[in-house]
# Entry
Amino acid sequence: MSYSLSVLVNLPVHANISGPLTYVHTHPLDTGTFVRVPFGKNEVLGVVWADGSKEVNQFNQKIETEQVAPTILTEATPKSSKLVLKPISSVIEGIKPLDKQWLALIEFAAGYYQRSLGEMALQALPPQLRDLDATQIARRLRRSKTERNELTAELTAATSELKTGSLQTLTSVTSHVLTDEQLKAVEEIQNKAGPFLIFGSTGSGKTEVYMRCVETVLAQSQTAQVLVMVPEINLTPQLEERFKHRFASLLNTNGTSCVVSMHSGMTPAQRLQAWLAAHSAQARIILGTRMSIFASLPNLQLIVVDEEHDPSYKQQEGARYSARDLAVYRAKQLGIKVILGSATPSLESWHHAQANNPDTQPSKYQLISMPSRIGQALMPKVQIIDLNRQPRGTVFSNQLLDAIKLRVQKGEQVLVLLNRRGYAPVLHCEDCGWKSACMHCSAFRVFHKLDRTLRCHHCGVVERVPRYCPSCGNADISPLGKGTEQLEELLGNLLVEVRQSNGQPLNILRIDADSTRLKGALTNQLAQVHSGEVNILVGTQMIAKGHDFRKITLVAALYPDTALFSSDFRAPERLFSLLLQAAGRAGRDAELAPTSPSEMWIQTQYPEHPLFHALKDYDYPAFALEQLKERVQAHLPPFSFQALIRADARSQSDAQLFLNTARDRAPLVLQKIRELRATSKATWLAVEPTLYPAIPMTLQRVANIERSQMLIECDSRVMMQEFLKLWQLQLHLLQPEFKGIVRWVVDVDPLTI
Ligand code: ADP
Ligand code: ZN
Ligand code: ZN
# Structure
């Protein structure tokens, strides 16, 4: 006898099939079971989507329609009259099936972000689970079991007095006496339902609040699991350390730690291990980056999203999901609490945490404010240097340079922020005007002096710096503009006479994507900063976030101006957040504060800009209010919903024509939606999405591919969803007619426009 099974496999939406495929097996399998199935010439991992409790013969008819129905390209797919269903290859033993909630999360995410179910599901799983066959996985499971057993033997002695999974011993470990603000936050989270938005200054003790809430949840149940998400774990190693340290006594029966990490810096084997620990509920605390939102956590009881405003929560490739938004969804789905935290919340979250009228219209999120820094440390005083009053070409104003000298002579540290790596963004010839344009992209190749290369940061092409101008042969080619490499060199020259308090020459360190390319480099460099041996730290936004540098008392941002006039409406929000986060790196040591109050210097050509005014007072609410006013007027998110369709093609006109042709079909799609819902009285049916004409992307050409985009706006989220679903069919239908199209993607709630 055989039974039919619906199985999810990794089919990108472009394969024109959006639903599960049908296979047969000798007996029914539970929904969520892992199987290997034949697919084309390969065998791939699949997840049973619906169990086949019915025999095949009876349901032949049904299977046939199912096989076709999920294909979104009904017209273009040949309907074979005789479907021969293939049997599955094997069932993966030893891993219990994924639960219904997990599958529901995937279903939601696939629908919302306009991807196929199979793609969403399979990409949410660790790569090794996809790549290893059933035997290899079985071997892996056996091995990790012995490893754990060996570890147990070692640890039994050490942990004999600890009760498994118990928190009794935790209180003895490193917890502070909470401040009033922290206490209030913890109580509020305990007593209300959330979602919560903790709006707390950098260094206000948010992490301590998270840890208390985690403790409470774990203490309430012996099996509870919590998910703590951070933007980039490599950039915030301290948070990982703090959690691991705090919950070090939380062990499994077999002696393994209940705290696991999940991020892309781990090896495939480590990722599988962590995933299995979460899935089997052995892991109680999962610390992870955006990918961890899809971890299978059968006993999930709490989600924390630290630095919730951070753009890295949005996946920018493949299925473009927002892990922060999915966290809120997942919490709601499970009826559990979610805590978002930031010193500069995203305007979306901030908006949700404001009540229009507290009596009649309460806010969607509970706002919890923690304005004070621990130990009365103050935020640094903001000093603004008007570059218009400085000699042309000033990199460091004299005032700033003097301030830096003073700090390093006192043994304090300085952080200089410039969001551009390399030596100079462009190399040029003064004679003929040649510039180091990339031959494959509409961008300049950046001059890296250390290895004398010209590098394109978009397509990756690397070339040695030419000795003579490639166009006129002139030997005088010179750098234009400044990058972090040049700042490092310049500071070294300007401060060559200056000595540290111990008489030694200054130690200047640069941290950016270039300096940290080698494994372990970042950890090493951060350790140098923490140990105090570094006097001046030069770097990109990498160093602006999260780090708890104790001795930094001066932060300087050199040219933050470009973001003020960007075509992207979120640029000011990101700049404000970056500058405030950077300022938050200073003055963290309250003991230094009375004798050496900290400072944040900004050199700008627009000293009167409202953004800098708000920053001067660290008045995020005022900044947010202004921004939200502008957004209401311009009808931008969070007051409308957006999606972006991007098409890549051989020529810009091909890309635009494809998008614009699809745009012409929008009225038909809309009409169809209304026909299908003729009997419904839903108000969203009256809402019209707006499709703007296709335009070239800001970075128009990358690696010889022309890129174009079309913005879609809609006041109703439901209409946006319904519209995109059906309109995408049109794009699929059109694509074969447009030979030049390389690919196209839909980005729902795009972060960069
Ligand atoms: P945030 O996450 O808001 O930036 P942290 O939780 O990192 O702030 O706290 C900043 C510093 O203050 C950390 O070194 C932390 O150990 C310390 N800290 C937090 N809460 C307290 C407290 N109640 N008493 C004393 N120190 C605290
Ligand atoms: Zn020239
Ligand atoms: Zn390039």
In short: Residues 53-81, 152-172 have pLDDT under 50 and may be disordered. The longest helix spans residues 134-159. The domain at 158-370 is CATH 3.40.50.300 (Rossmann fold). The longest strand covers residues 705-714.
